[in-house]
Amino acid sequence: MESRFFTVSSKKNPLIKIDVAEGHFATGSAHISHYIDISDLKSGASRARGAARELAAPYLKNCDVDAIVCMEGTEIIAAYLAEEILTKSAGAAKPDKDIYVLTPMHSSNGNFIFHQNVQKRIFKKNIVILVASMSTGSTVNRALECINYYGGKLTGISAIFSAFSEIGGREVYSLFTEDDIDEYRFYSPSECEMCHEGLKLDAIINSEGYTKIY
Questions:
Q1: Pairing of strands 100-102, 67-70
Q2: CB burial class (10 A; 0-12, 13-18, 19+) of residue 12?
Q3: What is the pLDDT of residues 117-161, one digit of tens each?
Q4: The whole model's pTM is what?
Q5: What are 155-180's pLDDT values in tens digits?
Q6: Residue 117 CB partners (closer than 8 Å, separation 6+)
Q7: What number of other Cβ atoms are within 10 A of residue 93's Cβ?
Q8: Whether domain 2-212 has CATH 3.40.50.2020
Q9: Domain spans, the chain
């Protein structure tokens, strides 16, 4: 599978790159035609900072962000995103202003929750959701339910890669879209055309990586 990887550069900034492999992959809720490796952007300091600079653009004018809710290991990018907004936004002159980087926990039934001491950072606050890769929107929808439950106010949705231009009527700001990846497709498992064509799964994937199926 490693030989299938190719590099895609962001149209917004060619220095921001992801590695992509074509095949037949299964997530927890879908089958998709391409695995998108975002690990370098999530873990490399200079790469994460570069991604954050581009993701900050829609929040620099007339936008008050109180917290960034991180999904799928995007905490490093979120920290740099918070720094960009704090130093370059229209409200940067506020000396006591801060932006919190928060990651929800999983409850026993699979819902996202926040511990009691963190909930005050959500209630009546302006929240940005940051996700690594959005193929079906299920993670973001669960995050939206969580934020609504704790009384937060959604300010924006940002992603490294998104197959959607909007979700829940809210625009998604992403560095990469399905237009950047030729013939990108995703299906529900029961309607997967690749399965119907008899193509075996190459790997099971999640936000942390992939496990080959031999």
A1: parallel
A2: middle
A3: 999 999 999 999 999 999 888 899 999 999 999 999 999 999 999
A4: 0.91
A5: 999 999 999 999 988 999 999 999 99
A6: none
A7: 7
A8: yes
A9: 2-212
What HEC string does 73-99 produce?
A: CCHHHHHHHHHHHHHHCCCCCCCCCCC
Closest by CA to 25, choosing from 209, 210, 201, 208, is 201
User: Does residue 67 contact residue 121 with C-beta atoms inside 8 Å?
Assistant: yes
Structure tokens at 136: 């079906």
Q: Which residue has the tokens 């060619």?
A: 14
Looking at per-residue pLDDT, the higher value among 93 and 145 belongs to 145
